[in-house]
Amino acid sequence: MYHPFNSAFLFSAVVLLGASGLHSASAQTAKIDTTHLSDDAFCIVRIDVQKLRGHMEKKSEVLEKFAALVENEGGFDLMEMKAVTTQNFFAIGESEPEFAVTFEFSQDFDRESFFEKNPRFKSDETEFMGKTYLKASSKSEPNLYFANKRKFTMATAGAIELIIQAESGMGTMADKIKSAPAKAEISVAFRSNDGFKEMASQFFSDLPPLGLPIDPLKSIHTVLAGTGYMDLRSSSPLVIQLTCKNKAAASQMKGLSSALVAMGKTSLSAAQTHLDEQMKNLENLDEEVQGMIKNQLSVAAKAMPIANEILAGFAAQSKENVVTMKVNRMGGMSEMVGIAIEQIFMGIGFSQEFRGPIEDPEFLDRPIELKGEID
Protein backbone atom coordinates (compact mmCIF):
# COMPACT_ATOMS: atom_id res chain seq x y z
CA MET A 1 0.00 0.00 0.00
CA TYR A 2 1.25 3.49 -0.83
CA HIS A 3 2.14 5.70 2.10
CA PRO A 4 3.31 9.33 1.99
CA PHE A 5 6.52 8.26 3.74
CA ASN A 6 7.41 6.23 0.66
CA SER A 7 7.33 9.34 -1.48
CA ALA A 8 9.17 11.38 1.11
CA PHE A 9 12.11 9.03 1.24
CA LEU A 10 12.07 8.43 -2.52
CA PHE A 11 12.18 12.13 -3.28
CA SER A 12 14.91 12.69 -0.65
CA ALA A 13 16.96 9.95 -2.27
CA VAL A 14 16.37 11.51 -5.66
CA VAL A 15 17.74 14.81 -4.36
CA LEU A 16 21.05 13.21 -3.45
CA LEU A 17 21.22 11.33 -6.72
CA GLY A 18 20.51 14.39 -8.81
CA ALA A 19 22.77 16.64 -6.79
CA SER A 20 25.75 14.40 -7.22
CA GLY A 21 25.29 13.79 -10.91
CA LEU A 22 26.09 17.40 -11.82
CA HIS A 23 29.36 19.19 -12.45
CA SER A 24 30.93 20.91 -9.47
CA ALA A 25 29.76 24.44 -8.75
CA SER A 26 30.62 27.14 -6.27
CA ALA A 27 28.61 27.11 -3.07
CA GLN A 28 25.59 29.38 -2.90
CA THR A 29 25.87 32.08 -0.28
CA ALA A 30 22.40 33.58 -0.67
CA LYS A 31 20.04 33.54 2.28
CA ILE A 32 18.17 30.27 2.56
CA ASP A 33 14.38 30.10 2.39
CA THR A 34 12.93 29.29 5.83
CA THR A 35 9.32 30.33 5.23
CA HIS A 36 8.17 26.70 5.41
CA LEU A 37 9.91 25.85 8.71
CA SER A 38 7.49 25.25 11.57
CA ASP A 39 8.04 25.71 15.28
CA ASP A 40 5.60 22.85 15.78
CA ALA A 41 8.19 20.45 14.31
CA PHE A 42 10.53 18.80 16.78
CA CYS A 43 13.13 17.89 14.16
CA ILE A 44 14.08 19.64 10.91
CA VAL A 45 16.73 18.51 8.43
CA ARG A 46 17.69 20.71 5.47
CA ILE A 47 19.81 19.36 2.60
CA ASP A 48 21.41 21.98 0.36
CA VAL A 49 21.58 20.29 -3.02
CA GLN A 50 23.46 23.13 -4.68
CA LYS A 51 26.36 22.61 -2.29
CA LEU A 52 26.27 18.82 -2.38
CA ARG A 53 26.64 18.69 -6.13
CA GLY A 54 30.06 20.30 -5.86
CA HIS A 55 31.43 17.08 -4.37
CA MET A 56 31.21 15.17 -7.65
CA GLU A 57 33.67 16.29 -10.31
CA LYS A 58 32.27 14.34 -13.24
CA LYS A 59 28.88 13.33 -14.51
CA SER A 60 27.88 9.75 -13.84
CA GLU A 61 26.32 7.73 -16.65
CA VAL A 62 24.35 5.71 -14.11
CA LEU A 63 22.96 8.84 -12.48
CA GLU A 64 22.08 10.38 -15.82
CA LYS A 65 20.09 7.27 -16.66
CA PHE A 66 18.37 7.48 -13.30
CA ALA A 67 17.59 11.15 -13.91
CA ALA A 68 15.94 10.20 -17.19
CA LEU A 69 13.94 7.51 -15.38
CA VAL A 70 12.74 9.99 -12.76
CA GLU A 71 11.75 12.51 -15.40
CA ASN A 72 9.88 9.90 -17.42
CA GLU A 73 8.05 8.37 -14.48
CA GLY A 74 8.09 11.07 -11.80
CA GLY A 75 7.39 14.03 -14.02
CA PHE A 76 10.10 16.44 -12.83
CA ASP A 77 13.69 17.36 -13.58
CA LEU A 78 15.77 16.38 -10.57
CA MET A 79 18.72 18.33 -12.01
CA GLU A 80 16.83 21.51 -11.11
CA MET A 81 16.40 20.47 -7.48
CA LYS A 82 17.75 23.18 -5.19
CA ALA A 83 17.07 21.96 -1.64
CA VAL A 84 14.97 19.52 0.34
CA THR A 85 13.76 19.94 3.90
CA THR A 86 12.17 17.29 6.09
CA GLN A 87 10.13 18.11 9.20
CA ASN A 88 8.84 15.69 11.81
CA PHE A 89 5.71 16.42 13.82
CA PHE A 90 5.37 13.34 16.00
CA ALA A 91 1.76 12.83 17.08
CA ILE A 92 1.38 11.31 20.53
CA GLY A 93 -0.56 8.08 20.49
CA GLU A 94 -0.31 7.67 16.72
CA SER A 95 1.41 4.69 15.16
CA GLU A 96 3.37 6.88 12.75
CA PRO A 97 4.68 10.45 12.95
CA GLU A 98 3.29 13.39 11.05
CA PHE A 99 5.81 14.21 8.37
CA ALA A 100 6.48 16.87 5.74
CA VAL A 101 9.01 17.16 2.93
CA THR A 102 9.49 20.47 1.10
CA PHE A 103 11.21 20.62 -2.29
CA GLU A 104 12.79 23.76 -3.72
CA PHE A 105 13.78 24.18 -7.36
CA SER A 106 16.02 26.57 -9.28
CA GLN A 107 13.45 26.78 -12.10
CA ASP A 108 9.66 26.82 -12.23
CA PHE A 109 8.29 23.41 -11.30
CA ASP A 110 6.37 21.65 -14.09
CA ARG A 111 3.21 20.85 -12.16
CA GLU A 112 1.34 19.59 -15.22
CA SER A 113 4.02 17.01 -16.00
CA PHE A 114 4.16 16.00 -12.33
CA PHE A 115 0.43 15.24 -12.19
CA GLU A 116 0.51 13.54 -15.56
CA LYS A 117 3.00 11.05 -14.14
CA ASN A 118 1.36 10.92 -10.69
CA PRO A 119 -2.42 11.21 -11.22
CA ARG A 120 -3.19 9.77 -7.76
CA PHE A 121 -1.65 12.90 -6.19
CA LYS A 122 -4.22 15.18 -7.79
CA SER A 123 -7.11 15.75 -5.38
CA ASP A 124 -9.67 18.35 -4.31
CA GLU A 125 -8.52 21.82 -3.33
CA THR A 126 -8.99 22.97 0.26
CA GLU A 127 -8.57 26.50 1.58
CA PHE A 128 -6.72 27.26 4.81
CA MET A 129 -5.64 30.69 6.07
CA GLY A 130 -6.25 32.14 2.62
CA LYS A 131 -4.03 29.51 0.98
CA THR A 132 -5.04 26.56 -1.17
CA TYR A 133 -3.68 23.03 -0.90
CA LEU A 134 -4.64 19.64 -2.31
CA LYS A 135 -6.23 17.57 0.43
CA ALA A 136 -5.65 13.84 0.10
CA SER A 137 -8.72 11.65 -0.18
CA SER A 138 -7.28 9.12 2.27
CA LYS A 139 -4.52 8.78 4.88
CA SER A 140 -2.53 6.63 2.50
CA GLU A 141 -2.03 9.55 0.09
CA PRO A 142 0.02 12.73 0.61
CA ASN A 143 -1.36 16.24 0.87
CA LEU A 144 0.30 18.74 -1.48
CA TYR A 145 0.90 22.45 -1.03
CA PHE A 146 2.42 24.52 -3.82
CA ALA A 147 3.72 27.64 -2.06
CA ASN A 148 4.93 29.15 -5.32
CA LYS A 149 6.18 28.09 -8.74
CA ARG A 150 9.46 26.81 -7.34
CA LYS A 151 8.51 25.19 -4.06
CA PHE A 152 6.05 22.53 -2.98
CA THR A 153 5.45 20.41 0.11
CA MET A 154 4.31 16.82 0.41
CA ALA A 155 2.92 16.09 3.87
CA THR A 156 0.68 13.94 6.01
CA ALA A 157 -2.73 15.24 7.04
CA GLY A 158 -1.58 16.50 10.43
CA ALA A 159 1.41 18.39 9.04
CA ILE A 160 0.25 20.16 5.90
CA GLU A 161 -1.61 23.01 7.63
CA LEU A 162 1.27 23.49 10.10
CA ILE A 163 3.51 24.16 7.10
CA ILE A 164 1.11 26.80 5.81
CA GLN A 165 0.90 28.40 9.26
CA ALA A 166 4.69 28.65 9.38
CA GLU A 167 5.07 30.93 6.39
CA SER A 168 6.52 33.86 8.31
CA GLY A 169 9.81 31.97 8.55
CA MET A 170 10.66 33.84 11.73
CA GLY A 171 10.41 31.03 14.30
CA THR A 172 12.96 29.51 16.67
CA MET A 173 13.49 26.43 14.52
CA ALA A 174 14.13 28.61 11.46
CA ASP A 175 16.77 30.52 13.44
CA LYS A 176 18.44 27.25 14.44
CA ILE A 177 18.64 26.08 10.82
CA LYS A 178 20.05 29.45 9.74
CA SER A 179 22.72 29.26 12.46
CA ALA A 180 24.67 26.60 10.52
CA PRO A 181 27.82 27.82 8.71
CA ALA A 182 27.26 29.11 5.19
CA LYS A 183 29.29 26.24 3.71
CA ALA A 184 27.28 23.50 5.42
CA GLU A 185 25.56 21.07 3.06
CA ILE A 186 23.23 19.66 5.72
CA SER A 187 21.80 21.44 8.75
CA VAL A 188 19.69 20.02 11.56
CA ALA A 189 17.60 21.55 14.34
CA PHE A 190 15.57 19.82 17.02
CA ARG A 191 13.89 20.51 20.32
CA SER A 192 12.45 18.39 23.06
CA ASN A 193 8.69 18.08 23.47
CA ASP A 194 6.25 15.34 24.42
CA GLY A 195 6.29 13.93 20.92
CA PHE A 196 10.09 13.79 20.85
CA LYS A 197 10.18 12.02 24.21
CA GLU A 198 7.58 9.48 23.10
CA MET A 199 9.48 8.78 19.90
CA ALA A 200 12.70 8.26 21.88
CA SER A 201 10.87 5.93 24.27
CA GLN A 202 9.48 3.87 21.41
CA PHE A 203 12.90 3.69 19.75
CA PHE A 204 14.70 2.38 22.83
CA SER A 205 11.88 0.03 23.78
CA ASP A 206 12.47 -1.79 20.48
CA LEU A 207 16.16 -2.30 21.22
CA PRO A 208 17.71 -5.09 23.29
CA PRO A 209 19.52 -4.04 26.50
CA LEU A 210 22.61 -2.10 25.45
CA GLY A 211 24.60 -2.70 28.61
CA LEU A 212 25.69 0.93 28.85
CA PRO A 213 26.83 2.51 32.13
CA ILE A 214 24.33 5.33 31.53
CA ASP A 215 20.61 4.95 30.84
CA PRO A 216 20.38 6.46 27.32
CA LEU A 217 16.68 7.26 27.52
CA LYS A 218 16.96 9.15 30.81
CA SER A 219 19.93 11.08 29.45
CA ILE A 220 18.17 11.97 26.19
CA HIS A 221 15.18 13.23 28.14
CA THR A 222 17.43 15.89 29.71
CA VAL A 223 18.15 17.45 26.30
CA LEU A 224 16.17 20.64 25.70
CA ALA A 225 17.26 21.47 22.15
CA GLY A 226 20.07 21.04 19.69
CA THR A 227 21.60 21.91 16.36
CA GLY A 228 23.93 20.12 14.01
CA TYR A 229 25.51 20.47 10.61
CA MET A 230 27.72 18.75 8.06
CA ASP A 231 30.40 20.69 6.22
CA LEU A 232 31.94 17.88 4.23
CA ARG A 233 35.08 19.73 3.15
CA SER A 234 35.94 20.88 6.66
CA SER A 235 38.44 19.08 8.91
CA SER A 236 35.53 18.99 11.38
CA PRO A 237 32.88 17.76 8.92
CA LEU A 238 30.26 16.92 11.56
CA VAL A 239 29.31 19.08 14.55
CA ILE A 240 26.41 18.59 16.98
CA GLN A 241 25.59 20.86 19.91
CA LEU A 242 23.06 19.95 22.61
CA THR A 243 21.57 22.17 25.29
CA CYS A 244 20.70 20.15 28.41
CA LYS A 245 18.70 20.91 31.56
CA ASN A 246 21.78 21.59 33.67
CA LYS A 247 25.54 21.09 33.96
CA ALA A 248 25.22 17.57 35.42
CA ALA A 249 22.93 16.50 32.58
CA ALA A 250 25.42 17.83 30.01
CA SER A 251 28.25 15.91 31.64
CA GLN A 252 26.16 12.73 31.58
CA MET A 253 25.29 13.24 27.91
CA LYS A 254 28.97 13.61 27.11
CA GLY A 255 29.63 10.28 28.84
CA LEU A 256 26.77 8.63 26.96
CA SER A 257 28.05 9.83 23.58
CA SER A 258 31.52 8.45 24.32
CA ALA A 259 30.05 5.10 25.41
CA LEU A 260 27.97 4.88 22.22
CA VAL A 261 31.02 5.60 20.08
CA ALA A 262 32.97 2.86 21.87
CA MET A 263 30.07 0.48 21.20
CA GLY A 264 30.06 1.58 17.56
CA LYS A 265 33.73 0.70 17.19
CA THR A 266 33.06 -2.79 18.53
CA SER A 267 30.04 -3.19 16.27
CA LEU A 268 32.03 -2.18 13.19
CA SER A 269 34.59 -4.85 13.92
CA ALA A 270 31.83 -7.46 14.10
CA ALA A 271 30.20 -6.01 10.98
CA GLN A 272 33.45 -6.35 9.05
CA THR A 273 33.68 -10.03 9.99
CA HIS A 274 30.04 -10.55 8.94
CA LEU A 275 30.66 -8.71 5.67
CA ASP A 276 33.62 -10.95 4.87
CA GLU A 277 31.49 -14.03 5.53
CA GLN A 278 28.70 -12.79 3.28
CA MET A 279 31.14 -12.15 0.43
CA LYS A 280 32.38 -15.73 0.73
CA ASN A 281 28.82 -17.09 0.61
CA LEU A 282 27.82 -15.17 -2.53
CA GLU A 283 28.66 -18.13 -4.78
CA ASN A 284 25.90 -20.10 -3.05
CA LEU A 285 23.20 -17.69 -4.17
CA ASP A 286 21.12 -17.80 -7.32
CA GLU A 287 22.85 -15.79 -10.08
CA GLU A 288 19.80 -13.55 -10.52
CA VAL A 289 20.29 -11.96 -7.08
CA GLN A 290 24.03 -12.52 -6.71
CA GLY A 291 25.00 -9.39 -8.67
CA MET A 292 22.69 -7.12 -6.71
CA ILE A 293 23.89 -8.37 -3.33
CA LYS A 294 27.53 -8.22 -4.40
CA ASN A 295 27.15 -4.55 -5.35
CA GLN A 296 25.51 -3.77 -2.02
CA LEU A 297 28.29 -5.50 -0.11
CA SER A 298 30.92 -3.69 -2.17
CA VAL A 299 29.44 -0.33 -1.21
CA ALA A 300 29.45 -1.37 2.45
CA ALA A 301 33.09 -2.44 2.12
CA LYS A 302 34.01 1.03 0.83
CA ALA A 303 32.23 2.73 3.73
CA MET A 304 33.66 0.54 6.49
CA PRO A 305 37.18 2.06 6.76
CA ILE A 306 35.79 5.59 6.53
CA ALA A 307 33.30 4.79 9.31
CA ASN A 308 36.18 3.58 11.45
CA GLU A 309 38.05 6.83 10.84
CA ILE A 310 34.96 8.86 11.71
CA LEU A 311 34.52 7.09 15.03
CA ALA A 312 38.25 7.40 15.74
CA GLY A 313 37.97 11.15 15.17
CA PHE A 314 35.02 11.65 17.51
CA ALA A 315 35.44 14.08 20.41
CA ALA A 316 32.96 15.45 22.94
CA GLN A 317 33.21 18.18 25.54
CA SER A 318 30.74 19.80 27.93
CA LYS A 319 30.66 23.33 29.27
CA GLU A 320 27.95 24.38 31.70
CA ASN A 321 24.75 22.87 30.26
CA VAL A 322 25.98 22.52 26.66
CA VAL A 323 27.58 19.48 25.04
CA THR A 324 29.53 19.85 21.80
CA MET A 325 30.32 16.75 19.75
CA LYS A 326 32.60 16.80 16.73
CA VAL A 327 34.15 14.45 14.22
CA ASN A 328 37.66 15.52 13.27
CA ARG A 329 39.01 14.10 10.02
CA MET A 330 41.62 15.67 7.79
CA GLY A 331 40.27 16.17 4.30
CA GLY A 332 36.68 16.09 5.46
CA MET A 333 34.17 13.49 4.27
CA SER A 334 33.43 14.44 0.67
CA GLU A 335 33.88 10.87 -0.55
CA MET A 336 30.94 9.78 1.62
CA VAL A 337 28.59 11.52 -0.82
CA GLY A 338 29.47 9.11 -3.60
CA ILE A 339 29.21 6.10 -1.29
CA ALA A 340 25.81 7.23 -0.01
CA ILE A 341 24.60 7.68 -3.58
CA GLU A 342 25.74 4.20 -4.54
CA GLN A 343 23.84 2.78 -1.57
CA ILE A 344 20.70 4.70 -2.49
CA PHE A 345 20.98 3.55 -6.07
CA MET A 346 21.30 -0.04 -4.88
CA GLY A 347 17.94 0.34 -3.18
CA ILE A 348 16.12 2.30 -5.89
CA GLY A 349 17.95 1.42 -9.07
CA PHE A 350 17.69 -2.33 -8.65
CA SER A 351 14.04 -2.17 -7.68
CA GLN A 352 13.42 -0.32 -10.96
CA GLU A 353 15.58 -2.72 -12.97
CA PHE A 354 13.75 -5.77 -11.65
CA ARG A 355 10.33 -4.15 -11.49
CA GLY A 356 9.06 -5.99 -14.56
CA PRO A 357 10.01 -9.48 -13.34
CA ILE A 358 8.94 -8.70 -9.79
CA GLU A 359 5.45 -7.71 -10.92
CA ASP A 360 5.13 -11.08 -12.63
CA PRO A 361 3.10 -13.41 -10.31
CA GLU A 362 5.22 -16.37 -11.39
CA PHE A 363 8.35 -14.49 -10.31
CA LEU A 364 6.80 -13.64 -6.95
CA ASP A 365 5.94 -17.28 -6.31
CA ARG A 366 9.38 -18.55 -7.31
CA PRO A 367 11.61 -19.27 -4.29
CA ILE A 368 15.23 -18.11 -4.41
CA GLU A 369 17.33 -21.06 -5.37
CA LEU A 370 20.55 -21.83 -3.53
CA LYS A 371 23.50 -23.60 -5.08
CA GLY A 372 24.75 -24.86 -1.75
CA GLU A 373 24.33 -24.61 1.98
CA ILE A 374 24.93 -21.30 3.73
CA ASP A 375 26.25 -21.38 7.27
Account of the protein in words:
This protein is an alpha+beta fold. The chain has helices at about 5-20, 50, 60-75, 110-115, 155-165, 170-180, 195-205, 215-220, 245-280, 285-310, 335-355, 355-360, 360-365; strands spanning about 45-50, 80-90, 100-105, 125-130, 130-135, 145-150, 150-155, 185-190, 225-230, 240-245, 315-320, 320-325. A ten-stranded antiparallel beta sheet has the order 6-7-3-2-1-8-9-10-12-11, with helices on both faces. Mean pLDDT is about 75; it is low at about 1-30 and about 350-375.
Describe the structure in brief:
The chain is an alpha+beta fold.
Number of strands: 12
Global structural class: alpha+beta
Strand order of the largest sheet: 6-7-3-2-1-8-9-10-12-11
Distance between the termini: 35 Å
Radius of gyration, whole Å: 22 Å
Helix content: 40-55%
How confident is the prediction overall: mean pLDDT? 77
Order of helices and strands: HEHHEEHEEEEHHEHHEEHHEEHHH
- The helix count comes to 13
- The shape, in one word, is globular
Q: What is the makeup of the main sheet?
A: 10 strands, antiparallel
Total number of distinct structural domains: 2
Question: How large a portion of the residues is in β-strands, by DSSP E?
Answer: 15-25%
